[in-house]
Structure formats: structure tokens, C-alpha cells
Amino acid sequence: MYILHGIHDWGSQVIHMALAELGVAYRFNALDFQAGDLATPAFRALNPFGRVPVLETPDGPIFETAAILLYLSERHLALAPAQGSAERAPFLIWFIFVTNSLHPSAMTLLHPERPAGAMVQEVVADATHRALREQLAQLERIAQSAPWWLSPDQPSILSLYLVMLLRWIKAFPAYAAHSIPSADFPALHAIAKGHEERPTIRRILEIEGLTGPALSNPACETANS
Prior knowledge:
By secondary structure, the chain is α+β, with helices and mostly antiparallel strands. It has helices at residues 13-22, 41-46, 65-76, 88-110, 113-116, 121-144, 157-171, 186-196, 199-207; strands at residues 2-6, 26-30, 54-57, 60-63.
């Protein structure tokens, strides 16, 4: 049995959804950031950087979201094009783009003070907002070509990762004016909507305390703060 160490509605969510879609046995160990759970010796033994997600596997603990997702897809031969298939190369290109470009941009939109301090955070947020819209436009172009691994009705590790990030950039930007609705990108919006309607994913969202259009149209929490 896998053990997923994570925090509800944090980056562990994509692993939680992937495990549910795979239909494998797992246990979710919900951690409390405020209580210092990520700093305990026991958790640091699993991830010395003190971050989630961490997945305990038959091959030992794995951290880094992309590494966990690729491990699961390769071990269970699901949620990604098979190695050696014609779709593998384009899939990998866009999977790495989401992990290495879109994810960092999303985090900067949420925490623009991190790169250079609070004095320039609004300037950083403005630039990041523009960059994110450009990145999403490129993903929209790929989604419009309808590869199965970026479609509404057949999740992949790429699409699951993407819809989590779509939630973040709509719900949690540091400035409400920078909230980006997935509806601005119809093909990506369809993926988010299709995924959140799947019973497996809906169950995970509910476990993590989320209801309604949590992936396709979450409320901007910044606007309500």
C-alpha cells in the first residue's frame, strides 16, 4: 500500500487524484503545516526539504511532484503514453513544461514577494500574470489539437497537474485582479470541468473539503479576504 503524505488543497492534491484514478491501495496521511508537521524529524527523514507531497512506495519514499507522477504512471502503465509510443515525446515536452514553467509561475503569482521582497511584489505579480496567460495560451493551443493526454474525459498525469494549477491561479493570486479564470481558455476549461465531474476526482475533492466547481471555477479567495 502506498502512503501519501500531504496537506489538503496543497500540491499533494494531484498525487491524491492520480492514486484514485489508478484505483490502487493507498492511505492519505494529512499533515498540519501550522502545527509544524513538516519540520518533524520523522517527516524530514522522508523529505529533507520539508515539503509535500511525499509518497512512500515499495521502492522507498519519493518526493518531488513530477517524480512521483512519472513513477506511478510507469509502474502502473497508466495515465501517460507508453514508453516507445509516438505520443510519448510530445507528452513529455508538455508535462515538463507544466512542472518546470507553469507551476513556478503559478507559485510566483500566489507569492510574488518571494523572488525579490515585498517592495516589488506588485511589479513581479504583474509580470507573472502576463507570463502565465502566455503559457496558458500555448497549452490551449495543444489542448485544441485533442491529444488524449490533454482532454476532458481521459485524465493523465499532465491533465491532473494542470487542473490543480488552474484552480490555484483562479482562487489564490496575491492580487484579485490577477485571478485568471480557466474560462478564458475554452479547451483548458473543458478539461477542468470534465475532470471535476469524474466520480473518482469528485470524491478526492470532497475529502479535501472542496465542493462545487472547485477546479473549473473556484471563487477567488483573495477577493473575499
